[in-house]
Design brief:
This protein has 118 residues and is an alpha+beta fold. The chain has helices spanning 35-56, 73-86, 99-109, and strands at residues 4-10, 17-24, 27-32, 62-65, 92-95. The chain has two domains: 1-33, no CATH class; 34-118, no CATH class. It is built from three helices and five strands. The strands form two sheets. Strands 1-2-3 form a three-stranded antiparallel β-sheet, with no helix packed on it. Strands 4-5 form a two-stranded parallel ribbon. Helix 1 runs parallel beside helix 2 (73-86) and helix 2 (73-86) crosses helix 3.
């Protein structure tokens, strides 16, 4: 497998999708990411964008709906930890109808998470 050198949108596909790019002498090749990988990458990019914006202006709240649907348990907990860190800069609200995500939040974040069941 070629080393990945970057990420971006592959506009040659219909619809366009998130892709990683491999560098070889003289060419650039894209490979479609798996759904879970793309979701994790998208979350990381959203967090980075909000952190960057917060350096220059009033931070925007982070609101997400079922962002962990394609994550396994370990990655869900890692994602929740990343959102807890983001919570030191701005308000973070995550909606889910998956009980295991609420359980993971309680386990991973303890008092840093407020679970509200609707």
């Amino acid at each position: 497998a070629a080393a990945r050198s970057g990420i971006g949108i592959d506009y040659d596909q219909d619809p366009p999708h998130l892709a990683t790019f491999a560098r070889r002498p003289g060419c650039s090749v894209s490979r479609r990411c798996r759904e879970g990988t793309a979701d994790q990458l998208f979350l990381a990019l959203r967090i980075a964008a909000i952190e960057e914006h917060a350096r220059r202006a009033a931070p925007l709240p982070f609101i997400a709906d079922d962002i962990f649907v394609s994550f396994d348990e370990a990655r869900t907990e890692s994602g929740l930890q990343a959102l807890a860190e983001l919570g030191t800069l701005t308000q973070v609200i995550v909606f889910t109808h998956h009980e295991h995500v609420a359980t993971s939040a309680t386990r991973a974040l303890a008092d840093a998470a407020s679970i509200i069941r609707l």
